[in-house]
Amino acid sequence: YRFHRLPKAIELAREAGHQGAMFPWQSGSDGRDETPTQLFNPRSGKWIPDRSRYQRHVGLAITYNFWKHFQATGDTDHLAREGAAVMIEVARFFSSLATFDEDLGRNRIRGVMGPDEFHDGYPWSDDPGIDDNAYTNVMAAWLFARVAELVELLEESGRSQMLESLAVTTEELDRFDDLTRTLHVPVLDDGVVAQFEGYDKLDPIDLGAYSKKYGNIGRLDLILDGEGDSVRRYQVAKQADVLMLLYLFSAEELRMILERLGLDFQADAIRRTVAFYSHRVVHGSSLSRVVHAWVNARENRRESWRLYRKALSIDVQDSQGGTTREGIHLGAMGGTADILTRCYTGLEVRADALWLNPRLPRELEQLAFPLEYRGHILHLEIDHKYVVVDARDGPSTPSTILVQSHPYTLGPGGYFRHELL
Question: Distance between CA atoms of 290 and 324, rounded to whole angstroms?
């Protein structure tokens, strides 16, 4: 789907004065940009600007999916054809967005929006977008590093012609490598990753007071606009933004990305970052509680389970006040299944291996489900004491599975039982 819309994304990037491919925030069937420019506020009865088209990070999510598909399937043919083209063109786009700041000594990406749709600009500026969104910059740094892996893989597999067809140059690869080290990620005084540059200059807000006054404050942007105020002034988020990084990456993987960017992001900083944004989010999106349930799963399993149950109720109880009539929240439904099968099991696919590091909530006694990994059909049973994995008939090539970092090699008909520490 995305590969076949790549030519249109390249066209959109060129029209905007950039290189590579710029996938639109809301895409038409042929890849055209259908993102609206205005939004109606029923509280004020007025139309207000809609700047959601500046959520450039959609392209990064697409490349993440291509890479994860390869990690899970081992399908080098798909990666070499569709994956390589999309990943390299999106990397070119973000490379062209990045500019070097002499005073800061870092590369910066300006004028974008992060996943938190409340902050579409600064309260002191009429220009759209904010600068150095941490989610966008970290994801871009991740992509640049993956392109280097992709190039090496293509060369080793004798597919160098793919790089030639995409006109990939040594200078371009050097630029990508430099950006994995020099993209600016703002940090607050206590080591908390800032949502964007200037976040610390925003005002605090009493969410409890607004909740008491209005009940559901998921669309605090519309509430404040109706009061003649602007949500851009405050340290508040519609949904997960920085914390999306801990949803997409394990703490170990995120730490490695940030270390390459010159940041020390240890366990204490992770805990402070989770706590900081957990007190500043209104969960205005059905996906937000999925992410927050995920990031609390290791340190606060009771809170994780509470948020998980809330996410489950979105459509069953229509907990967002009538939105289910407009259509079910399919992404949130998928997210709740994802929490069970990946989050609480600590399941990752990286470094040519399947990783498991379970930590089930007390309320969840056991999980059992089938899983397809690189052609193998695996059956997993996980409880608070053991992990049991057995493999059905499949490819002769065995797979590496690590449980709490202990490696197992599993081929067709294989079986192991691991006692959890």
Answer: 17
